């Protein structure tokens, strides 16, 4: 159990209401309510007082979050490095809530980027097959216009997300130390979300895999070129939905991983990220420039999108090599 649950349990064991316990501690009932709902944590003096009125040890209330010295109930704070940022319960709750609320919007923005060339590919297929009296210029103009509108909308969302998320950047980039009770709370939330996260990832990956079936079926049954081209648009739509699932659940689960400093957010990984940050920015800027130059020059938008898949695979490999060299040094 986390501190919030122990306070609630001990209060009820003693038969006190929140008002009665608040009176014993000389605090407001709202303060007790926030402690029990894990919206905030009592300070050191209040923890000492809680242990006293409950008749329990401080070690029981805090367990591994604070350690006693030489077997006594004397609390000591470990010396912190100046570079370590402290994260309070309020900050942790605000960060998790912000991630939860923005996850669907962020996922939608990623989906917009994926489906942006879908109409262009579809119209290009109709134009090449001389269906619907759609000229090449008309297909290109309408398709690129929609592409740019969708990408622009996605960029607005990304920029807005980035601006609002600046206050939490330190959680991803700097070493942090969470306040008492935060780790336990986040671990419980992550455990509760685990099944939803697993289902979301499974659904997203399944859709991405099945997305190629319409295209392969059209090729297998020797369908006309415009039908095959249309299935590429369907592929993009299905992939967009699948990626939307993945990004949404990953964004929410990522908030727990960040606060727990797990995976790619361990202090060691954060140091590597700082050293490779310039490379990452330059890499994707170059990829974007190549994609636009290649697409506008060849006008083969139904083929150039594959550059993103190749770039993504190469990025993972190159980044892993760079991190390996950094570790060796």
Give an overview of the whole structure.
The chain is 75% helix and 2% strand. The protein has 329 residues and is mostly helical. It folds into three domains: 3-65, 434 Repressor (Amino-terminal Domain) (Orthogonal Bundle); 85-265, no CATH class; 267-329, no CATH class. The radius of gyration is 27 Å and the shape is elongated. Residues 64-82 have low confidence and may be disordered.
Which stretches are poorly predicted, pLDDT < 50 over at least 5 residues?
Answer: 64-82
β-strand percent reads under 5%
Q: Main β-sheet: number of strands, strand sense, barrel status? A: 2 strands, parallel
Shape: elongated
Residue-averaged pLDDT: 84
- The helix count comes to 15
Q: Strand arrangement, largest sheet?
A: 1-2
Q: How many discrete domains?
A: 3
Q: Give a count of the beta strands, DSSP E runs of length 2 or more.
A: 2
> Could you say which structural class the secondary elements and strand pairing correspond to?
mainly alpha
Helix content: over 70%
Ends apart, CA distance between termini = 42 Å
- Report the radius of gyration as a whole number of Å: 27 Å
Which H/E pattern describes the elements?
Answer: HHHHHEHHHHEHHHHHH
